[in-house]
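Hi P.,

Sorry for the delay on this. The queue was packed all week, but I finally got your sequence through. Input first:
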Amino acid sequence: MAFTKKKTETQELPEVLPKHVGFIMDGNGRWAKKRGLPRSFGHIEGGKTFKKIMQYCKDIGIPYASFYVFSTENWKRPQSEIDGIMKIMREYLDEVQFHLGDGVRAVFLGDKNAYPEDIKQRMIKLENDTAHHSQLTVLLACNYGGRDEIAYSARQIAEKVKAGELNPEEITEQTIADHLYTAGMPDVDLVIRPSGELRLSNYLIWQCAYAEYYFTNVLWPDFSPEELNKALIDYAGRGRRFGGV
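Then the structure:
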């Protein structure tokens, strides 16, 4: 395996890094429960980890990083927990410009209309303000579900067929991809899920068709750049054949 000269405190990074890493930020509630704290404290700590990992992705040259922030299923959680998450989102969106830094573009995946109007407008403003940045694209999956996204794509395509702009026999995999929230962006190369769970949980299921998976028992608030290095080194040692030999 080839390595660069770029070193972290304890590890060397592989020469070839994934273009798009997806993070399922799981374990916030359990992290808080282990410490006898309300679940909201776990989400606060998880937010700090998100900022740290996002910055590290930028520093080492990963061009796309996606984060599972809030799923379409998360609305089923206790209202007190949802209120706490909304509070964190407001705070994040208010001060995000200060820690995103130059070169970071923010894109929200999912239906913004489900959020309170003030949060929705903050999301739109952030996307517009950072649209010209290209060093790192951060994809934030909020009110997001993979099956819901595919249905969203299908509805858009159906409207074009109905309007006579597209014939059914012209619909290809690329047609579907072009109508997803991630249109124009690369598929996920590496999915990282902390907390010991071994499932995708409806996250970017179209985009992860050929992704490599990395699972760890570390809870998200404890996930560090060193843990990410372990995942990147593991990824670099895998053979990606995409159905070939």
